[in-house]
Fold this protein.
Amino acid sequence: MQILLPLATLVSTSIILTGATPVAIPSEIDSSVYDLDEAGEPDLAAIKLYEDSKKYFHEPGSDDLLGHYDTRYFGELLSYESKRDTQVHMVRAYLEVFQHMGIETWIAHGTLLGWWWNGKVGLKEVKFAARMSLLTMLPWDWDIDTQISESTLEYLAKNLNHTLHTYTAASSTLHSDPVTRTYLLDVNSQWEERERGDGFNIIDARWIDVHSGLYIDITALSETHPDVLPGLLSCKNLHRYHVKDLYPMRETMYEGVLAKVPYNYDLVLVEEYHEDALVRTEFEGHVWDATQKEWVKQQESRAES
């Protein structure tokens, strides 16, 4: 299979992070102290403070916008165009670093769905032809998701946690000038816990753009109950997959760089999003342009027509 070379070049370093450590969390807190306020009502502010103290990764808000930035590096909300440009470089850098280091990872959830529409549709062969694809991700999706194995997570935690990686591209989606970005690989301190628990630490690691605070969520899949559910892998957010639906991974292109997707990607997507997600051509203020093979804003589509 011929692979088209990516547009970006990348330099990966292993610099121990200093001056940007995770939010300090107390080791023990008595939750009963925060149950009620002076009027005997639930003390919501105190409860949130307690919950935040148990959470490793922190965001400046919980909505679709603020909930997708890392608090440590958040300055302001990016525009629609800047967000897309930042995500393109972020996922290219992530995939290239992991490829360069020989670390297996694959795209998942909405990111996989975006690939299905923009990258896969129209390719008739099961063994994909390589193609250079721009803006493969769903434009309304603030969240980029990737997955790894439990053994890979252990390797990242013990060898690459808190390392910075510098990426350089010849141009961006916004201009023709060179682009240099730096990313932090940060592994959750609770990575060894493979059950959901209280739900505060379901994300195992993040690849964070230190300029904007946008990030890629990285979750590991584990065979948590091999005695009763052999061959069934799950993440801490209760997404479950059969080994035979994941492996062997398929090689493809995503945002112009080499990437991997699950072997039985159609079934994986249908089980998570139902068949409607693979046929619906209008969603979140966007319409699918079959000619351009791209989701475009509806007002832009109407203006062009």
User: Anything to note?
Assistant: Residues 59 and 71 are 5 Å apart (CA to CA).
